[in-house]
Amino acid sequence: MSLSEPMRARITTIIRESDVVLFMKGTRTMPQCGFSAAVVTILDEHLPEYQTVDVLSDPALRDGIKEFSSWPTIPQLYIRGEFIGGCDIVKELHATGELVKALGLAQGEAQAPPTLRVTAAALAAFSAAKESEADFVHIEIDPSYNYGLYFGPRQAGDVEAQAGGAVFLLDRASARRAEGLSIDFVEGPSGGGFKLESPNEPPKVKQLSSAALKALLDSGEAIELFDVRTEQERKIATIEGARHLDQAGQRYLETLAKDARIVFHCHHGGRSQAAAEHYLAKGYRNLYNLQGGIDAWSQDVDPSVPRY
């Protein structure tokens, strides 16, 4: 597909209008995919204002930006007219501190290594899994305090922390969140696994099965149910009582108490998880995501709701 000159001119104008432009699925307040939500979360850490462009509302623009940048996926970030990359590249630049430079922000002081607490069981498990002396345990903690552990060589910008005689490497953003982190290795019904807990961890989005949601609705307990899908999807199938998280729905949600019980749902659970995490960052503390979305509701609770 060749890019038409009118579309090229339109995209060029959008990019020139703002220093930071993110072409994404959905909006800053309501991302419609996990990758777009991840980049929004990173940019929100650094910038009070930036421009987002919803490609889902304009299929021609969605195809056009891919041709313009020669990049096949969304989201896409531009800074002062320069194409930076997609989600993985933004996350890497954020981890190394290079994104701060690209945004033209002042660099902070060198990140101090966090204090970690590692049990003997975890140290033994790390030792058994290590295949090379050049490999180190890397710890990743994203803004929602989802944890990652992997073995790998040192990388530029790594922050080194030591505990129990072992070396752990973290990117700068993870190191800021890791103070007081405890790492254990525990046995469970399906085998052993690492357990990471942080005293800094904020409330998390809780997962809710369709059967549990049905029980809550039947009980008459106070609950607010929001549907983050598009209007077109809602015309196909809806859960009775679910309020559309459009602009009016967002305004209503923002009038609710921060401890109100709020459940989000979408088609299969991905978009609603991103929406729930967005409001979690805004200080709402009692948030749920419907596991499997309306599709699970149709299969497990109400077969009269069409599947699509």
Question: Would you kindly provide a written description of the structure presented here, covering whatever features stand out?
Answer:
With 308 residues, the protein is an alpha/beta fold. It contains 12 helices and 16 strands. It has a 5-stranded parallel β-sheet. Helix 2 runs parallel beside helix 11 (270-281). The longest helix is centred in the first third of the chain and has 13 residues, at 5-17. The radius of gyration is 22 Å and the shape is globular. The mean pLDDT is 91.
Strand order of the largest sheet: 12-16-15-13-14
Number of continuous helical runs: 12
Q: Major sheet: size, sense and barrel closure? A: 5 strands, parallel
Shape: globular
What value does the average pLDDT take?
91
> What percent of the residues sit in helical stretches (DSSP H or I)?
25-40%
Extended strand count: 16
Oligomer: single chain
The ordered string of helix (H) and strand (E) elements is HEHEHEEHHEHEEEEHEEEHEHEHEHEH
In short:
The chain is of the alpha/beta class and 308 residues long.
Throw out a few tags for this protein.
alpha/beta, globular, 36% helix, 308 residues, 24% strand
Question: Could you outline the blueprint of secondary structure elements for this entry?
Answer:
Elements: H1 5-17, E1 20-24, H2 34-46, E2 51-54, H3 59-69, E3 76-79, E4 82-85, H4 87-96, H5 98-103, E5 116-118, H6 120-129, E6 136-141, E7 147-152, E8 159-163, E9 166-170, H7 172-177, E10 181-188, E11 191-197, E12 206-208, H8 210-219, E13 224-227, H9 231-236, E14 243-244, H10 247-253, E15 262-265, H11 270-281, E16 287-290, H12 293-300
Parallel strand pairs: 1-2, 5-10, 6-9, 12-16, 13-14, 13-15, 15-16
Antiparallel strand pairs: 1-3, 3-4, 6-7, 8-9, 10-11
Helix pairs in contact: 2-4, 2-11
